[in-house]
Queue: 3 jobs
Job 1
Amino acid sequence: MNAMIGEKIGEGGCSEVFEWGTASKIIKLARANTDMDAMRREYHNNHMAWDNGLPVPQPFEFVEIDGRPGIVFERIIGDTLMKRFVKHALERAVSKEVHIEEDSQNDIRMTARILNEIHSKSNVNVPSQRETIKNAIGWVNYLSPEEKETIFKLIDSLPMKQQLCHGDPNLGNIMIKDGHAIMIDWMNATIGNPEADLAEYIIMIRYAILPSYLPDEAVAYIDSIRETIIKVFVEEYTRLTGVTYEEIDAWIAPVAARKLSADGISEAEKSILINEIRARLSKLS
Ligand SMILES: Nc1ncnc2c1ncn2[C@@H]1O[C@H](COP(=O)(O)OP(=O)(O)OP(=O)(O)O)[C@@H](O)[C@H]1O
Ligand SMILES: [Mg+2]
């Protein structure tokens, strides 16, 4: 291992993240499931976001260590929204209160605001969202060719937009530094409809299977607030942009179908998504 590498500070489905040299930098090293091209794309996308003045970690260099592609970034000092959300749920589980406290509502609204800031950029060199989503759905094993064809037609029928989208706005990809949201993990950025990003967030909040380390009370609490989180999120995004829940809802089936191509989610979660997709497709025909 390279002498610059320090303690492991985080990880995700595609990578492990370590301290790098001084305290101010980290290195994100690809796992075996993530190739050189994907990491280069992330570096390019993150650079583009940085150059456009978006709140993202500064990217420093693309490197290769022991054959693993990696990116050196500015270290963001702060917690992910995931960590903050789990902390909130554990506290609520003890106190048995069922409202979402103001701080956590603020985290949800901040997510809507940072997405809106990202979506306000349009003149950027990233892949087409429609092509990316269709291509991913093409690889999915869980849907029939007819079902895929119906989803492609649905995508083609939706209004065309050309806005920068992050592609994976999950709670582990937003960090809070000095009260401000920072968006990390830009591998899946595309240009297209912001509704796809919003649908991605809604699908995660509505259907994610919670980790088994959480106590039953915390799981019950989270289950009881899923739809409230979505309401707070959409209200803030609609207030900022005029985009309505109905417009976002049309993207749920295509984005859920795309998610079936990801290797980071469990079979149980995929089967929930398949049921949701089929219910929606049957209403179309
Ligand atoms: N610039 C950074 N500063 C501090 N911590 C970071 C930074 N980048 C990543 N991390 C930590 O590492 C974790 C994993 O990073 P990241 O989300 O980029 O990896 P990933 O493997 O692409 O994730 P995913 O599972 O979403 O694909 C983050 O949730 C965060 O805790
Ligand atoms: Mg991530």
Job 2
Amino acid sequence: MSAQELCPICGEGHVTAQVQMVESDYKGHKADLPLHYKLCDACTSDFAGAAESKLNKRVLMAFRKQVDQLLTGEEITALRKQYKLTQAQAALLFGGGPVAFSKYENDDVAQSESMDNLLRLVRRSPAAFWALVEEKGMQSEFIRPRVSVHSTAKVLASVPISASRTDLHYDHRRTRRFSQGVVPCH
Ligand SMILES: [Zn+2]
């Protein structure tokens, strides 16, 4: 379909979508990023339309976030899904305005450092998530899992313990050597 698009410059040729890797530089970090543009087969004009410009901006923003050590759009989507939040719920909970999460996740804008810190904290800690839900009075929006955070932690903690018991069973010498440095857990 795009192959049939008429060239807006000469009005005779047809334009096709092109991608070229172009080196970008941000704060001394270099990366080859895909640059999207259109090329006319008659007048050989190359240009970026609205769609290409948007794509190029997102690619560049994703690279900048990476350099600035901010969560990527993909990571924010994953965090939101981890807690089964809609973008609207995420905005109510974390702030940033009604369309903030759509923009963060599409790499249209970079979240602030403080927003990034808050997201990282909640990504790491379900307890922090539920505390924030309470702070914002949003308990009715979410169904808290039946297993409490405390007993979940217990279940998780038991995994390495049982693993080391297996170790003890199969390799006494190795376990004895390791156990010297292990703090007793009972
Ligand atoms: Zn043309």
Job 3
Amino acid sequence: MKKELQQIIEGSTVPEDDVHSQNTLHWLLKLKPDADEALQIAALGHDIERAVEERKVRREDYESYDEFKQAHALNSARVLDELMRRCHVSKQLAERVFYLVCHHETGADRDANALRDADTISFFDVNLPHYFARNSFEETKRRWLWGYAKLPENLRVIVAGFHYQSDELRSLVKKCTGAA
Ligand SMILES: [Fe+2]
């Protein structure tokens, strides 16, 4: 199942999806070294719908960014659930993964919160330069502030330590940190 999951994500048209999947697991294990199998699968597959071109949700179809992210989480949970069923993953494990992926943007219980935090940190660690390459300065600023606001205060220091190559991105982050 994990092999098939990885193949699907490697096929994504979003170039950072593959590294973000692995990097979210990396941060999850830093935040929660005893993360169980459900949580680890959820970390690897939480954005799977983005890799399935004919299924993925699109920003322009939703009024607000939060609604879009909610639809993205539910859609990923469904796509991952179908994969787990195809691969005969136990019902109990599949149900837990579904729950975690459904709540990966907002958090819910302690595990879902750890997944949300790992995903959020990973966005700043590996996705942000890619996001900036595809989006305007203002949109990237909005996305930075949206992600930063989700992070518990004790984890914000991690994000503050990330270094970016592009001068323009560094100045954007400086502006954002001042505004946050
Ligand atoms: Fe993500």
